[in-house]
Design goal:
Blueprint (H helix, E strand, L loop, with lengths): L6 H31 L2 H30 L4 H21 L1 H6 L2 H27 L3 H30 L2
Helix pairs in contact: 1-2, 1-3, 1-5, 1-6, 2-3, 5-6
Length: 165
């Protein structure tokens, strides 16, 4: 049985995709840029860039993907598109708060905690809807986020060692 095709489904697709992408992409960027540049300005510029350019990119990706399925109305496609853009933009923008208020190292930790909380809450909701074990779904999603954080951190460290030291 296929998923229902309506505005609510399209809104859900956009919100979940945009928020998840906003967390993972922005957290990876914050961690990697902080490790690689040790520059608050670079991290702020990176987050703003992600909030705009990647939100538009993801929205277009969802738009094309939904069109390609050939089962959605124009309204459903645009609902998913706009929900993706705004959820990605707003989620990414929330990562500016710790960078603006805290020293860079503390901001990285606060960003990681913030991302884990939001991802866990979303994962819990998805698990409940699916009838799956919430802790399994949350663990799976947090593991993926941890891999991104570790990979971007060590990539940033490597870039710093190669290009700065």
């Amino acid at each position: 049985m296929s998923a229902p095709h309506d505005d609510q489904h399209s809104l859900q697709v956009g919100l979940l995709f945009g928020t998840t992408s906003g967390i993972i992409t922005t957290l990876g960027l914050v961690v990697g840029l902080a490790a690689g540049t040790e520059s608050r300005l670079a991290v702020i510029g990176g987050v703003l860039t992600i909030a705009v350019a990647d939100a538009m990119s993801d929205a277009l990706g969802i738009h094309i993907s939904e069109e390609a399925e050939g089962v959605h109305t124009e309204r459903e496609i645009w609902t998913a598109t706009l929900a993706t853009f705004f959820s990605k933009f707003l989620t990414a923008a929330t990562f500016l708060v710790p960078v603006l208020l805290l020293d860079l190292q503390a901001a990285v930790w606060a960003s990681a905690i913030w991302g884990a909380i939001v991802l866990s809450l979303m994962s819990y909701g998805v698990a409940k809807v699916q009838g799956a074990r919430p802790w399994w779904v949350i663990g799976e999603h947090l593991l993926i986020a941890a891999v991104v954080v570790l990979a971007t951190h060590y990539l940033g460290v490597w870039v710093h060692q190669v290009l700065v030291e």
